[in-house]
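Usage example:
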Amino acid sequence: MDRRELLRNLSIATAGVAAFSCRDRAEAERLAADGALARGEGNPDVTWDKAPCRYCGTGCGVLVGVQDGKVVAAQGDPASPVNRGLLCVKGYHLPGFLYGEDRLLYPQRRGADGTLQRISWDEALDLIAEKFGDALRDHGPESVAVYGSGQWTVFDGYAALKWVKGGMRSNNLDPNARLCMASAVVGFMTQFGSDEPMGCYEDFEAGDDFVLWGNNMAEMHPVLFSRILEHKRQNPGVRIVDIATRQTPTTDYADLFVPVKPNGDLALANGILHVLVRDGMVDRSFVEENCVLRRGIEDLDAIGFGVGGEAGERYGFKDEPRESSWDELVEFLADYTPERVAELAGVPARQVEVLAELYGARDRGTVSLWCMGVNQHVRGTWMNNLITDLHLVTGKIGRPGNNPFSLTGQPSACGTAREVGTLAHRLPADLAVTVPEHRARAEEIWGLEPGTIDPKPGYHAVDMFRALSRGDVKAMWIQTTNPWVSMPNLARFERKPGDGSFVVVSDIYPTPTTDVADLVLPAAAWVEREGMFGNSERRTQHWNKMVEPPGEAREDAWQIVEVARRMGMGHLFPWEGDWHEAMYEEYRTFGLGIGKDLASYQELKETPGKLWPVVDGVETRYRYAAGYDPYVKKSKGVHFYKAKSYGERAAIWLRPWHPPAEVPDAEFPMWLSTGRILEHWHTGSMTRRVKELHQAAPEAYVELNRADAAELGIKDGDRVRVASRRGSIELPARVDGRGKPARGSVFVPFFDEHHLVNELTLDAMDNLSKEPDYKKAAVRVEPVGGKS
Amino acid sequence: MLGLAIVALAAGCAPGVAAQASDARSPAVVRASRRAYDGAPPVIPHAPLGPDCTACHDETGVVLPELGFSPPSPHERTQGLSAASRCVQCHVYRETDGEFVASSFVGLRQDLRRGTRQHTWAPPVRPHGRFLRENCAACHTGPAAREEIRTTHPERVRCEQCHAAVEARGTFRR
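Running the assembly step on the lines above writes:
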């Protein structure tokens, strides 16, 4: 049937739908008569305003439609350079997450009978001030803690930072971004002396080869993956390489799938370096001009994993870097022949050679991409270092289409956690509490007495919850995150309200975390308040408040400011009325003139965001690159001007292979990996309340390899038990679903509070970033009978 | 017989592939039931039928014997986004009809009024944008199109030649 014939048939078929069309007309007349006729595009009753998406770190621009005081629609913003009008299924369904019928509406305090009872904001804020004040007075600054979020706006994070570090003189401030991005932070800091990538999303149209390291980009960063797919469609020579422990929807689009064992990525990266050096595919002149070499502690016993003995309570391993050399690198890499890598990593030796040829090809741009597979790793910082090493030794860095590019999982992991510096050791703009000059700068900007800020880093996230369980933390405030679903080895952090410590939780919905809180505060969400996020490519984006929050919900930053004022710390927040612009402009002063210059408040209000450093209103697409970055003094090439301690050069690190913290054995013979899926975001507290998303993925499941399932007598849909040394859960099996784990391994998503996979995971950590490894635990799988 | 099947699948019912010819809802109501709001990507109203959605949802739509009419993809002419390359990025299946928590969300409803035209014989102006809807045939031709917006001249393929966009309000002023 040709097109003309088909169209003729369709015209004929039209007659058959007349009955339905009559009902359409009746429906239109009914709606008009009811006065409920909807208004479409261009209707003056619907107002549209820009905001970044609430979910992942891509930072898609969204046009938010508001009608009668409610968010009723969302469109991808065609003016956004990030997504150019496209969203993913979560983004299109953003409006729905605001309107779950169980929104938290009022402050509630848990009574003696264990139930939550409504109280006023004044009572709630007074109570927090009293409890934190008591802890400070009786037990000191180590006894208070704030656990924040990569979903905090810049305002929320800055208010928390200033209150905790400048007001309470504690460094016990850490975000859930510790669980997702900390390894990338330490990776960039150890190599460039400054956090965050040098490239931008334009790399996705400029590169030739895209190497995805443990990164299911099709589901986790779908809009960015679309950009790569479109680039590939227009340029068939573009190649996608998927290095992973399981096949995912990303694999369907890959030119090369590289199966790798857990922790085998360390060996693989070293194997690629080995071949690059062996075959002369390195750019020695680039290295000599722009790089130094460094090496740290490598002894496995000295480093550990942060789970056993004393390190199992407070893990404070510190590296001892020393200078290295090219000759030492060559000697070090001699151990990583393709054949040995094949043993350690499970990657065929020929694939190691192919990957080296890819990285070494001078006429092709190479972009490396990674996210949780690399970061949630007991040697995550080392993996970050090694991937960047591949770009440094080949000189493929700081040019369009040639960059190492870490992606982020939360909307402001970069803008708030990393740039504001809401980490236990950090201050804004790459400053650290451990450096006297940095503390002095913060004290000067904040108008505080010299010596106010404590030089000792506070608890990182996992240790913070260990300290709460021990009773060392007496008062903790958790905002915009759900740790009683997302922390590893959850059984370790079991809590009963009224146990002597005081836990306050600010959120928008009830969660397993509010279930164990002593005080629950209702938060304003997304466009119910003014905000700013910073995305993966250094783009800061502002949005206006568009609708009123429900009930008495208030923004997190307001909650913090009000408590600080009640604790006699009002001098930290001296602004009258609407303080958003004043607070932001104060924060912005930290980065001015040091390569971390953010756009002004007014610039951000008027644009779809800008990439820092922004100097004289001009954003920087490529950091460290001549012709792009105003801080680069050289006329061509790159200049790593932030790496002061390396003589303004980048560091190539020698990092060895280490085994995982736990490996399968006879009792627990399979690997467990965890993660997200396309439809749900993180612990599901928002996306599960969106009908379309819940109906698409109503329940967590365990993905099994077909051969394993057959051997275990498990069929798709069967109920199975997954058990580790720490706990067990029952859930349905998926065989040949969207993901296909390697033989001997399983995958469970973590969005489902009714199937808490973090009952099974291990709280082993990266030695440098202290980020937990959610990707490797030993489990046993067994059928329990019944179908889902 | 085929005509009835075409009508039934075009009106559609979720979940499942089988068309339900007895559905008494109007196409507009069925359409709305598949979308969170007007402009949201519809959920997929049938069970998975294979990895290549565009095998059936192509530029013109496909009549499937015994099943009905598979509407065209509105994105088939979309350039620059690979919008048609990974359909499940935006369109999801339904595995259940339940809800995790009840919701009070009410989305924007589709405007069912006629578009404006200068005079009786003038072509109506286009009241909506074309972004991700470049293939007009998807909504304006065939059994899946509502009567009010179904074109009388599906054989003509350059719609913008006669139907002007509305880019601004108000009138020209010197």
